Amino acid sequence: MNAADEKMGLAAVQALLDREAIRDCLYRYCRGIDRVDEDLLRSAYWPDASDSHGPYQGSASGFIEWAMARLATAGRGVHFIGNILIELHGDVAAVETYFQALQQSTDASGKVQHLHLWGRYADRFEKRGDEWRVAARVVIFDAIDQAESAPQTDVERFGPLRQPLGANKEHDAMYRLLAAVREENGA
Q1: How far apart are CA 133 and CA 28, in angstroms?
Q2: How confident is the model at residue 150 (pLDDT cuts 50, 70, 90)?
Q3: How confident is the model at residue 106 (pLDDT cuts 50, 70, 90)?
Q4: What is the distance between the alpha carbons of residues 46 and 60, in angstroms, rounded to a whole number?
Q5: Peptide bond preceding 151: is omega within 30 degrees of 0, i.e. cis?
Q6: Of 43, 106, 114, 161, which residue is 20 to 30 A from 87 by alpha carbon distance?
Q7: Residue 151 CB-density burial (10 A; 0-12 exposed, 13-18 middle, 19+ buried)
Q8: Is the CATH code 3.40.50.300 the one for domain 3-151?
Q9: How many whole angstroms separate alpha carbon 30 and alpha carbon 78?
Q10: Which residues partner with 126 through β-bridges?
Q11: How many CA atoms lie within 13 A of 136 on its CB side?
């Protein structure tokens, strides 16, 4: 292998590592927003990032504060992402990520509502040092569906065999698993 081929091979490996780091950041965002985990959510954005997120327009830090306040009492949320298209340009990337989000809330009369959104995140990612994070996000909305939930409690809807139920941060089974694995390994 000559020097030029070796250089191309190293560049290809670096591009794969960069793409995987970007995907990992997108997954951290989803877990952070769904589990109302502010630290994890902040780890997806650069401190000076912006976010244009439907009714919220401003800094990513402001978006996180806005979202945490809304989600603290909202009920369950599930974000599912796919079709991640990453266009790398050195230490900057244009990333389009399709999403589906199911959000639960309670209306003024106390009825549980389910809001199902489909759309795309149009993200400018930047690599600073060895880390990729969102520098600017625009949420593009493609479809919406809203429905009233059955008038039962979660335990009644899911039944005794579908346990544990998803919860916020440390009350979620995944966070208990993470804590146990980290403790076993001294992390």
Answers
A1: 10
A2: low
A3: confident
A4: 8
A5: no
A6: 43
A7: exposed
A8: no
A9: 8
A10: 92, 133
A11: 4
